[in-house]
TrEMBL record:
Enzyme Commission (EC) number: 3.5.3.4
Keywords noted in UniProt: Hydrolase, Purine metabolism
InterPro entries: Allantoicase (IPR005164), Allantoicase_dom (IPR015908), Galactose-bd-like_sf (IPR008979)
Domain of life per record: Bacteria
HAMAP family in the cross-refs: Allantoicase (MF_00813)
Record-given protein name: Probable allantoicase
UniProt key word Hydrolase: yes
Keyword Glycosyltransferase: no
Organism: Acinetobacter pragensis
Pfam families assigned to the protein according to its UniProt record, in alphabetical order: Allantoicase
Domain Allantoicase per the UniProt entry, residue ranges: 27-172, 191-333
Family assignment from sequence similarity: Belongs to the allantoicase family.
EC primary class: hydrolase
Stored SUPFAM superfamilies: Galactose-binding domain-like
Amino acid sequence: MATLLAPIFDVPTHIQPLTNLADDRIGAEIIGCSDDFFAEAKRMLQFHPPIFVEDKFDEHGKWMDGWETRRKRYAGYDWAIIKLGVAGKIKALDIDTTFFTGNYPASAAVEVAYAPDGDLNSVKWIKILKNNILNPSDHHIFNIDTDQVFTHVRLNIYPDGGVARFKVYGEVQIQRQRNNETLDLLALKNGGRVVAYSDAHFGHPRNLINPGRGINMGDGWETKRRRTPGFDWCLLALGQSGKIEKVEIDTAHFKGNFPAQVSIQAIYIEDATDQQLIPQSMFWPFLLEAQDMQMDHIHTFIEEVLKQEKISHIRVNMIPDGGISRIRLWGKVD
């Protein structure tokens, strides 16, 4: 069977700093839909780009990598309700119909609600995207102008059809901390994001902030073998500025290719563009000076953490190269 990969899509610059609140890796889930006869609705929340497998069929028909409903033979439309992985302010939507050519919806609209307790019986649904025409096999980016916080999204497709991926880009709203709670301020679910990096030949640094431990060596940040002086680095933005109490560096699955050492520089900064941060980061003070690494191991640092009032960004230096699975920055929002 021939498998086609989705064409590379360049996420618009203004969306890149935002978090996909509908990412199943951070707990987003389908809690109801009108129909998903041909393809399960939960597939459209997957992180990886959609694929098309030629000649792959199941008991319902052609297998599609996304959500697909049956052909509607009566009045109405199809819908799916998504519980966001974390509450947030929605700033953009991507309704992706990649590989849906003769079976994409004619149009789509989006409604939202705030229900932190999960009870949708009495909530008021607010339309943030009016009914818009869709195209076959295409990304449809819609900018949203609202500062309200929402927990649930309802995607309505007219009258039926398929959506490969549905992404809800926004600003994570960390719920009020209980009893000065300690959080991983770098975690994807708490709004952490990648700013820049020197190399990502074998694995992207965005994997560093994923939930859980890495599932294999591909689920981490891994650079190519360095043949010139220096070391590899990546810049990460915390979801919320805070004071760091503990650092964890996990080299899970990296055995013959873990870095010799890792150091972390950090800063608190406001109103700087991502491009301005890159040259500045060379001179940031250290949060964690260079520490020796071991293969396939969680390294925990508490006493070694150099206390700072608060930080908003870090620079991870991987000396000289290699792979890291996860990085956790445990601290309190300031």
